[in-house]
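Lecture notes, unit on protein representations.

Consider one protein chain, 351 amino acids long.
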Amino acid sequence: MKTILFINLRSHKVERIQPLIEAKELGYKVVLVTDKNPNLVSNYLDEIIYTDTYNTDQTLEKVLTYAKENKIDGVCTWSDKDVELVSIIAEKLKLPGINPQIVKNARNKYDMRLAFSKVKGISPKFGKVNNEKNLNELVKEIGMPGILKPVGASGSKGIFKIENSENINETYNTLLNATSPTKDKVYSYYPNEYIYEEYLEGNEVSVEGLVQNNKVFIVGITDKDVTNTFSLEYIAIFPSSKNEEIKEEIKEKAKLAIKSLGINNCAFHLEGRVTKKGFKVIECAARPGGGFITSHLIKMSSGHSFIKRILKMSTGEDISEDWPNFEQGEKKACFYSLMAKRDGIFKMSMG
């Protein structure tokens, strides 16, 4: 029996439990490293290691202590915050994973942009924000509208769209307050580091896949839409309805973007937009996509499990021999989030 280490789980209970179910279907022993009690999933767990996963040294010490008595075959995570921690654990235990020396390319959005900028035509204009004066200079240089965001957050946290020069300073100060590590620990990784970049007009998509032995495997493209304010995702449809020419362009540029980051032996979730000047990359996470894409949409549409391939890759199994065409399913699968305009209780009538 192989033992796989999960570093935390997704926040939504439905997404949280699916990787555990599929790990059990593969016959794996699942050990969860977590900050808190994983409600509703204990029946699927063999062991739990409680620790402060924001504290890398403490977590690493507990994992290495466990590994002295128990063989660990793989390690993975399902969200951005633990990507760097997973790379360190993988290196220490000699497991498949991203090299800790380059993992920042997939976590620090400024470093990520620097890597992307080596590939012609996939990045918007961008600049690092050091202070209020610097931001005003970047807005003049790059133009408006533009996106101001922290370099180390996830889940659309702290994304501000600047459309006129009158609210630049107010927006910057609001961002500083909203991204304080005292309010959310996710900002403790790269505190007070921000990026301003050219706003991309066009339909948003994400590309799902994984990298094994430096080869990029693409599951498919997901059509998405986000709100104009704060870029909150509210719909995702897999597979994409874009025409074949556009899908081919997206996939080829996604592969170049992934390779520019240098990441390996990990899943990825790359986001971008189809603009009038072609496909442009927004950012890329070195973990599976959320929003029910990985946990439900891909399997519902294709009949094939992306999760099982992620788990096999994490434990060193060659996934190239069993890689299906995920985009040839007979149906599309969709996640749609209702955006409430006021407080209240939502009720559905089945009549």
